[in-house]
Request: fold
Amino acid sequence: MDLQKLLLNALGMQPEDVIIEKYLTNTDQLSTSIAIRQRRDCRHCIKCNGQLYGVKQWVEKKLYGIPLGVFLKVEIIFYQLQGICGGDCNNKTRVAKACFIHPHLRRMTTAFAELAGRWMEETTCAAAERMTGCSSMSLWRLDQWRMKKKKDNFKLPNDLPISLASADEVHMMTLRPQEQRSEKSLWEKKFITNLVSYDLSKVITNAKGRSGRSLQSCLRQLGPELCRQINFLAVDMHDGFIEAAEKYCPNAKVAVDRFHVAKALNKAFDEVRKQEFEQAKQNKDNFQRQILMPSKRFILVERSRDLSKENQSHLEKLRKLNQNINSAMLLVEYFPKILDKKKVEEFRKGLKLWEDLVVEEGLTSFIDFLKTVKKYKERIEVYIKSHLTTAVSEGINNKIKVLKRVGYTY
Ligand SMILES: [Zn+2]
Reply:
């Protein structure tokens, strides 16, 4: 049996090109280091493919290799042949071509890059970093490179189940470019608009930003034939989105569904929390300050039965002490019941009762929210009539990972 050949093939290499010189394993770390030398007769210039002459030395390079069985971390010490190029490079010193090195990320073997790339389709760059030991920055660059390659060859199938769709704006925090960091914070908020198929629960197309133009771009990528197949499209409470949806999707009922309403409702609630947090800071009220701070937000928004006993009692105490928080929580608790209504008349009745409550409590952010809801009432009624649940699209939005997937893969 030719085990050397098997090992080289596993690493993505050919015995005609390279030879294994030695290997060291570390069974505690589950890592291995393999020294591999390029053969003398691999004499094609890396730049111009011309013939190298005067080959007598090798340059040492460290490469990430694909995991081998239990050895998750495989380091390849590669001795790359060097010579003088007799081709287009005009007698410059060049190394020989090695096709198992990734064309863009020169410290990775193509086998490693392919596996790490697949991992990053399923999980985050940071998780791939922990598995491979390769820096998340290099992995991120690899991910970008692969996505761009994939996008170039990418075409949407015509039988895409797109009858029920949703346009969701999502945000992510991204690191600012180095030169902008001094004056502003390290992280910057960016928005993406995703077009999601309910049936596939997948992002079909997406575009930068959260304006009407962003949705137009999503729908243009879909093409007129698929746009005609959309029968129901849920969007945010946003004129630009609705206009784009009506312009591009002639057969669609355009709705604002509960997911989008809930998002706006949570925002209204969070404004009350922020105000009360500032107030508690001014009053040096440590108890309220502690429970109203951003990192403790979950205590206010989680269903009370999911909270610990301690947090439940803190919450009860807070609601007794703070009238505004108590009102805001009541308003938030009641609203989903209106969206549960199956008949438009019942929805209208529920909304009217809720409106009276909002006016009575007089919280500015809820008054603003109510204005928005009333403006888009007809669109919300389209949702009430449709009985469509948006659990799918909510699930998608919770997975930040999906944001970076440009396009669509089964
Ligand atoms: Zn050359």
User: Anything to note?
Assistant: Residues 45, 47-48, 50, 85, 87-89, 94 surround zinc ion (CB under 6 Å).
